[in-house]
Specification:
The structure is a single chain. With about 150 residues, this protein is an alpha+beta fold. About 35% of the residues lie in helices and about 30% in strands. It contains four helices and five strands. The strands form two sheets. A three-stranded antiparallel beta sheet has the order 1-2-3, with no helix packed on it.
Length: about 150
């Protein structure tokens, strides 16, 4: 991390700024995650009903795009249904190690009949494309292949 990035204010909004979470081990393979605002979740290895890190990756991709699409379309009409499925296949190779492939996000969004619903339905494909191509920080980061530095403190 650069010195400039470390001096930026911590933010949880949609604008630019530094983001961080802290994981604290609670038991073998289980962690409590805390964000800068004090929110917590528990993650694990998949041996319990806690989310795994891979499920959180899928959640982050779907959630980021869902927020974008909802923000754009709900200005026109409140949805009567809004479901997003994020999925992919976990793969492993000697060259790449473990990774996810064939990632896909499917939106099932319905709006009421009438002019407002028509406007929202008309905007839906464009809002999904905008999220994919420009707005969703999570999927854009995955697609761009941003390098990750891991270090010991």
């Amino acid at each position: 991390m650069t010195d400039a990035a470390s001096t930026e204010p911590e933010t949880g909004g949609t604008g630019p700024g530094h983001r961080s979470v802290t994981l604290t081990r609670t038991s073998r393979g289980e962690f409590e995650v805390t964000n800068a605002r004090g929110g917590t979740i528990h993650i694990g290895t998949g041996e319990s009903d806690d989310f795994t890190p891979v499920e959180l990756l899928l959640t982050a991709i779907a959630g980021c795009s869902a927020v974008d699409v909802d923000f754009i379309t709900a200005k026109r009409a409140e949805p009567t249904e809004f479901t997003v499925v994020s999925e992919g296949d976990k793969a492993k190779s000697s060259e790449k190690g473990n990774y996810m492939e064939d990632l896909e996000v499917t939106f099932r969004v319905r709006f009421p009949e009438g002019p407002e619903g028509d406007k929202a339905r008309e905007m839906l494909p464009r809002s999904i494309a905008q999220s994919h191509d420009r707005l969703c920080t999570v999927s854009r980061t995955v697609q761009l292949g941003t390098p990750i530095t891991m270090r010991e403190d």
